[in-house]
Amino acid sequence: MKTFKQEVLIIAKKLSTMDISKTLKEVRENINSSNNVEIGRKFDGKSLFFSATNETFNHFYGVLLLNNEVENGKVSDVMFKGATTFSDEEKSVYLHGNKILMYAFNEIRKEIDFLPISYQLLLNPYASLRTFNQEPIELADTNFDYSVFNELGNSFKNTQLIKNVKTTFLASKKN
Q1: Spatial separation of the C-alpha atoms in residues 34 and 45, rounded to whole Å
Q2: What is the pLDDT of residues 33-60, one digit of tens each?
Q3: Looking at the 3D structure of the chain, how many domains does it have?
Q4: 76 pLDDT tier (thresholds 50, 70, 90)
Q5: What angle do CA 73, 77, 82 make, to 5 degrees?
Q6: Sign (positive/negative) of CA torsion 36, 42, 48, 50?
Q7: Helix (H, G, I), strand (E, B) or coil at 81
Q8: Residues 6+ apart with CB under 8 A from 163
Q9: Using the 8-state DSSP alphabet, how is residue 141 labeled?
Q10: First CA to last CA across the chain, in angstroms?
Q11: Among 11, 3, 40, 1, which Cα is nearest to 101's?
């Protein structure tokens, strides 16, 4: 049986060869190259969305949230006021990336179903972030093979940490 770390590395390798990874990379490269300012050409600022979310490690959700706030005029930072926002195609690609990450999280969360749902949801990496309207954007690359995550939950469940949490939690329920 593979460890959780080994399983994550296997998944990362598989994901890197999938169409969605190539599409994400292309969209990011196109956004970055659109900001190579030439004389007389306006700086569109989209790549700043990535810089603004870099330290919080929430690229997909973070850039989409910031983009939404710019679109709705809710951003207070002068650097982003008037910035060009993502096209529907760009939003679609990043929403799909976010959906994939949430799917992986939910596969892991299923393995801690012995905990109350409120505890499980506390582990959600997006629980403390603001929400935004994700409709009516249609997701890109709907042919994504989610079976890549089949073993993720099982390897997570078999980590010593989760075994200890489960043992402790279940013992406390008996008392």
Answers
A1: 9
A2: 765 555 444 556 677 777 666 555 567 8
A3: 1
A4: confident
A5: 50
A6: negative
A7: coil
A8: none
A9: -
A10: 33
A11: 11
By the 10 Å C-beta count (0-12 exposed, 13-18 middle, 19+ buried), 61 is classed as buried
Token pair belonging to 173? 């329920």
What range does the domain containing 151 cover? 4-174
Counting every residue written for the chain, the total comes to: 175
Joined together, the tokens standing for residue 85 give 């926002």
* Burial of residue 46 (number of CB atoms within 10 Å: 0-12, 13-18, 19+): buried
Between helix 88-109 and helix 19-34 the angle, nearest 10°, is: 140
Q: What is the DSSP letter of 132?
A: -
Q: Extract long-range pairs of 103-108: CB within 8 Å, 24+ residues apart.
A: 103/146, 103/149, 104/11, 104/149, 104/152, 107/149, 107/152, 107/153, 108/152, 108/153, 108/156
